Amino acid sequence: MAWHDVTRPLTGRVVVYPGDHVPTMVQEDRGRYILSCLHLSTHSGTHIDAPSHYIRGGAPVDAIPPNQLIGKCRVIDIGGKETEIGAGALAPALSGVERLLVKTWFSREHGFREDYPGLSREAADAVAEAGIGCVGIDSPSIEPYSGDGRVHITLLSQGIAVIELLDLSRVREGDYWMVALPLRLEGLDGSPCRVLLQDNGSW
Question: What is the model's pTM?
Answer without folding.
Answer: 0.96
